[in-house]
Amino acid sequence: MNEHRQGTGRFCDLPLTGLPFGLYPDSALPPYVAAGTSLRPILLDGRVVGACYADAYAEYALLGELLPRAMGASREVQARSVFEQCEAALQTGGMDFSHVMRTWFYLDGLLDWYDAFNAVRTQFFEERGVFRGVLPASTGIGLANRQSAALVMGALAIKPRDGRVRIQTVASPLQCPATNYRSSFSRAVEVTLPGSRQLHISGTASIAPDGSSLHTGDIEAQLAKTMKVVAAILQSRGMEWSNTTRGIAYYKRAEDAATVRHCMREYTEGSSAIALAHADVCRPELLFELELDASAATTPPTLVRATRKNTRPANMPSMTIRASSSRTKPAGSTTSRSTTTLR
Questions:
Q1: DSSP state of 207
Q2: Is residue 323 part of a domain?
Q3: Do strands 58-66 and 100-107 pair parallel, antiparallel, or not at all (unpaired)?
Q4: 26 to each of 151, 221, 245, 269, how far by Cα in Å?
Q5: Closest Cα partner for 49 from 144, 154, 150, 140?
Q6: Are the CB atoms for 185 and 130 separated by under 8 Å?
Q7: What is the CATH number of the domain that holds 174?
Q8: Number of domains composing the chain
Q9: Span 268-285, pLDDT tens digits
Q10: What is the pLDDT of residues 34-54, one digit of tens each?
Q11: Which of 102-111, 259-268, 327-336 is modeled with the greatest confidence?
Q12: Contact status, residue 319 vs residue 123, Cβ threshold 8 Å
């Protein structure tokens, strides 16, 4: 078992892709990039923030460490800024936000302002028409960053050349849409390429079909519920745990590390594709969250397809973002973080 610890106690560094995004493991790129493919760096304000590449089927961009321009501004202003920075980075490669199908957000002091962040995200998506297309899969986790910004963003974007590449959202058979409780992301997104299907499952936690949290304070019960939910998404697309290509299991309490490690081995049969990370989760009562990628043959499953059009529900009102003077927590207020790759 390989374990990675950061010295400052503030940051979570998983195995690198070679791109400037230390929270995205090596196994993320192979489904889309053939061996020997030349990657072109994406620069924003003179800083490398990702890479783009192309093949006969589509253009691809992987972005990471997207930071707000005005780090001294309110958290809401910084959140808006990272979306605009993402958009600007994509435009350098001939893409726009409609091509984003997966996002990652690492918020400093997550629990202090996650609702405000969601309001910013929803407003930006409404302005850009995201709800009329593919609503991205996403992860939102509590982690600080070296630049002391309110948040850091990463994104994966795909621009198909023609109908040979199809991108669609995938519903969770056991959970309601996250938009039902005003969190603007899809439970999963599937990309169909000639020869394979790539499934990207959002950060998933112990949440009931009505959107409420389950098993407060019980890490084993929360983990079991989460794994059941993720397994149901995999099965709806004709996949199993053995199809996993990449994953991160986030746990909130340091004392739960051994339990999470043991349970993950049991559920995934010791998959080396899943890393463990000590980080905060989006609700105070939630202790565990899992994001997962999986791959299978292009032939669609014979099961009922669990896909649906992503439109903003009628009961999700438009939101007006108000500026706030709230600040991130001081450096000493965060706990030590570590990551482990299951072997």
A1: B
A2: no
A3: unpaired
A4: 23, 30, 10, 20
A5: 154
A6: no
A7: 3.30.1330.40
A8: 1
A9: 876 778 889 999 999 999
A10: 766 778 899 999 998 888 889
A11: 102-111
A12: yes
